[in-house]
Amino acid sequence: MDQGQATEAWPQRCGQKAPLASCEDLSAASPAAKRAQQEGQEQLVEQGFTIEDPMAVPLDRYNLVYWIFLLHGIGTLMPWNMFITAKEYFVDYKLSEEYTGEKTALASNFLAYVGLTAQIPNVIFNWANILWEGKGQNLTTRVVYSLVFEVFIFILTVVLAMVNTSTWPEAFFFVTMGSVAALNMANGIYQNTVYGMAAKLPFKYTGAVVLGSNISGTFTSIVSIVSLLIAPDARTSAIYYFITALFILLVCFDTYFALPLNRFYRYHEMVNEKEQQALRRAQIGQTSSAPLWPIFKKCMPQLFNIFFVFFVTLAIFPAVHADIKQSSPDFFISEKFFTEITCFLTFNMFAMIGSMTASWFPWPGPKYLVVPVVLRVFFIPFFMVCNYQPLPINSRLFPVFINNDWAYWIASMLLGWTSGHFSALGMMYCPRMVEPQHAVRAGMLGAGFLITGIFCGILFTMLPPIFVKSISWTV
Q: Is the pTM for the entire model greater than 0.90?
């Protein structure tokens, strides 16, 4: 890992985060802050850092830390993306009438069932991670145990793909739902902790996690398509597919232990700890609990943006989006791959691009981000008037107004790009709304509202099938 003595200048202007102190002179700081500053410098010497020049800061050589956080961003949404993208395996194979020999209602709302089963424990454990009063626990414990548990669940999922479950479809369904629930209990802690870790670092590292989470969707979509192409049957395809997820989680596990070996990461972790110590000493005799409410009030505009972006996105994708059928038989994408390409691959690829463009040109700014975020609500009625055909097919009464596959596909691109771009901006702006010592808690709050937005969006997906099947409208 990075063992050089590369340095970069500290920020010289107010408004930019200086690692060990604000841009104000230390003579104006409290005695507690001065003591913490001195102790921090002594520890830097012990850790091998050079402070003859007190403005020396290690660089992230080759962007190793950035790439590690991007990888963990992929890992945070890998469990969710793997199960929703495998719709064909679950609905058209394991729970289908051809495989089980009987009709079952379990396949009709499979994505909605997966969404609720996944997000209820994810929301609970995500917020428990935020509200847990023992704030100083070792983050390694949270990350390591979460990843180990997720690896175990994916091994079970691969085994279930290998086993013939045609004679017990109900049991298979409930075991799958139990696996999804357990997986997301662990993932709620893992995801929240990763965002908290990234908030200790400069601005772009939170963006790396968001980018990774969007790459995760694109990656799983590509793996799904490749598995369908190279595998001789649905069973083998699923085995390849879920083993890939297992491999990614193992890589995340390994790279987490590389972070403390990196000088750049170790430096910023120590800086954050010194800021926390200074804050605690300055508050001796006052309440020791973390100021969650003041942090919430300062971050509230960005927390709403994060929540509403994911609410609108999950109200459409994947439950409504995946049930939009091909309108024209002459469309250049075949019916077999229509959903895989126009829904899963398109949305995830453009969400990934959106998260990258947020880093390239962070527009709009924190004050006006709410405007395009709220306008995204019009995506919901748009996709409902496309050729949306929830199961059972031909049960729709509400008329289809948009029969153009190109119009639907372009809207899919816009849905993905706006989701990635605006969610990345919200997550990057959120830690900047508070003092540096509260950035970790703000980052974790952002992750909490992200998950809550996903959960509420999934709850909303129960309504579109009811609406289009119950409301008739003669034009």
A: no
